[in-house]
Specification:
Number of strands: 9
Helix content: 10-25%
Shape: globular
CATH class of the largest domain: Mainly Beta
CATH topology of the largest domain: Lipocalin
Radius of gyration: 21 Å
CATH architecture of the largest domain: Beta Barrel
Oligomer: single chain
Strand content: 35-45%
Strand order of the largest sheet: 8-7-6-5-4-3-2-1-9
Number of helices: 3
Largest sheet: 9 strands, antiparallel
Length: 161
């Protein structure tokens, strides 16, 4: 019975993540139900991944200071055209498109993914040859709006002590 439970968990995509403990001999239905209910993530490809809505077009920032930005220029024809700038570190222009179950992009020195969620956009750098950006770096853009003006910058009180 243990082998059946493990095989079933692997087939469901749960066992490879270490999310299923092999339960002692109860019943196959109870074991499968427990494995599914206790899992936090099921590794199944997203079927029919679609481009996000045009409501994501515009400028996104990592925080209220608006120094790091992600500009979603266009979402159409199966692609997302964007530019990203991390203050005093780097800037890039890229085009992303759906590749399997992810939205992927490639630039001269790096490639990565875009994830669109209700609170913003996550950019993950999967591979990087750029010395200041490590592979695996993640940037969360959760503030949408216009760029700050000089008056806005002047009003920000920063403590560098």
């Amino acid at each position: 019975m243990k082998r059946v439970c493990v095989v079933l968990a692997v087939l469901l995509g749960l066992g490879a993540c270490g999310q299923v403990a092999v339960l002692e001999d109860t019943s196959a239905a109870e074991t499968t139900t427990a494995a599914i209910e206790n899992s936090t993530e099921v590794n199944r490809p997203i079927e029919n991944l679609k481009l996000p809505s045009k409501s994501y077009e515009g400028t996104w920032y990592t925080d209220e200071y608006r120094l790091d930005s992600l500009e979603i220029n266009d979402i159409s024809n199966g692609t997302i055209t964007f530019s990203m700038g991390i203050f005093r570190l780097f800037g890039m222009n890229a085009v992303a498109k759906i590749d399997g179950d992810q939205i992927k992009f490639s630039d001269f020195d790096m490639n990565g993914t875009l994830e669109f969620h209700k609170d913003g956009i996550t950019v993950t750098i999967v591979e990087s040859d750029f010395v200041y950006i490590e592979s695996g770096s993640t940037f969360e853009f959760g503030v949408k709006g216009e760029a700050l003006t000089k008056a806005d910058f002047d009003s920000i009180q920063m403590d560098f002590s």
